[in-house]
Amino acid sequence: MPAARKVAVVGVALSDCGRVDDATPYALHAQAARRALADSGLDRSVVDGLASAGLGILAPVEVAEYLGLRPTWVDSTAVGGSTWEVMAAHAAEAIAAGHANAVLLVYGSTARADIKAKRRTANLSFGARGPLQFEVPYGHTLVSKYAMAARRHMHEYGTTLKQLAEVAVQARANAGRNPDAMYRTPITVDEVLSGPMIADPFTKLHCCIRSDGGGAVLLAAEEYVADTAKAPVWILGSGTAVSHTTMSEWADFTVSPAAVSGRIAFERAGVTPADIDLAEIYDAFTYMTLVTLEDLGFCAKGEGGAFVEKGRLTIDGELPVNTDGGGLSACHPGMRGLFLLIEAVRQLRGEAGDRQVRTSGGRLPRLAVASGTGGWFCSSGTMILERG
Asked: Cβ distance 52 to 28 under 8 Å?
């Protein structure tokens, strides 16, 4: 066994995203993978690991075959939207230990196109077997689980609908500076509050969009960095955690598993929330952003409502959050966790164009956190990244 090696993100890319009616999920996987390899400057022959989930019966075997890869290290962990932060943590650990040299994380989904073409129907009950069977008869959909949690936070801490709406407004403001975002037209708090009700207290604009798209991230050992096309983004630390699947087993609706994954990630990275320049946070619903900011330690429990006010989350704010517009405005193709890592890397490398975050003195950001959430606050993966 070699000594533990440093691990860097050396390539990132998106496939075509938003409205993609003429591609299959496999094609989006391949498009993102090719672009990420080109971004890295490395030859595909160095890739000996593959991580993929959400496609095929034998994922990632089917994806590997489609991409023409024969990896000797694979991961198909499936824990919802946080899957990609969790798999990135697994891949980094494998590379550090010498079990792999370069691992490709890849994803693609035609979630929007499938619904529009009536190839399948949306099912937000997530099945009626196992523990979930006790909730399904009551029509307890995914959105209603998040809505219940938001209502509890409002009850416990006085969080207001206007504060939750601020999250959507600021995400849209960030999306307005991202040419690839699906929705860019500015919105107001009043527009969020007056929209059609989806699940109390969430109106339509409190909820993520449905899009098509994919992405890929290439992680590699430190000895490959000299041959890469761009400066590395180093993985400083990561943490993973799970919480519950049945709502009755969730001890506190106001605390997400990011409270655990975040603490572990910051401890392993040797930094604190005060050191972070930007945050990419899973935002299927506005409440997710607010409570995750609390649980990662950017503010105290119960203070998230006040924290998200006054434009703090915008690109020019005190803590830029979801700088591409997030799942609320940019893209949300099924599982969004991989897109958090891609945007964080682009920001740290100074490649974000009009939405580029600058710290005091006009400098590029040095540290970013990407925190994904899966299920209905069932799982969490948090990763701290540093510009090389």
From this structure: no
Predicted confidence at residue 16, as pLDDT, reads: 83
Name, in order, each residue with C-beta under 8 angstroms of 333's C-beta and a sequence gap of 6 or more.
17, 108, 109, 110, 111, 112, 210, 211, 212, 213, 214
DSSP 204-273: GGGB----BEEEEEEEEEGGGGGGSSS--EEEEEEEEEE--SSGGG-S-TT--THHHHHHHHHHHHT--G
Query: CB within 8 A of 115, min separation 6: which ones?
Result: 121, 122, 210
Order across the sheet with 278-281: list the strands. Answer: 73-75, 49-51, 102-109, 213-221, 7-14, 233-242, 379-387, 367-374, 278-281
Closest CA to 20 of 34, 35, 31, 11: 31
| 8 A C-beta contact, residue 348 and residue 365 | yes
Q: Can you give the residue ranges of every domain in the chain?
A: 7-115+209-387
Beta-strand relationship, 278-281 and 73-75 = unpaired
- With tokens 């996987």, the residue in question is 29
pLDDT on residue 94: 97
Q: Give, to the nearest 10 degrees, the angle between helix 286-296 and helix 161-175.
A: 100
Closest C-alpha to 168, from 152, 146, 147, 183:
183
Nearest to 113 by CA among 34, 28, 178, 30: 28
Amino acid at 49: G
Measure the CA–CA gap between 109 and 171, rounded to whole angstroms. 22
d(CA 274, CA 296): 11
The answer to whether 385 and 345 have CB atoms below 8 angstroms apart is yes
Q: What is the token pair recorded at 3?
A: 């000594």
- Topology of domain 7-115+209-387 in CATH is Peroxisomal Thiolase; Chain A, domain 1 (3.40.47)
Nearest to 105 by CA among 120, 123, 116, 90: 90
Bond before 137 cis per omega within 30 degrees: no
Surface-to-core class of residue 306, CB atoms within 10 Å of its CB (0-12 exposed, 13-18 middle, 19+ buried) = middle
Arithmetic mean of pLDDT, 136-142: 78
What would the pLDDT profile of 292-341 be if each residue is shown by its tens digit? Answer: 999 999 999 999 999 999 999 999 999 999 999 999 999 999 899 999 99
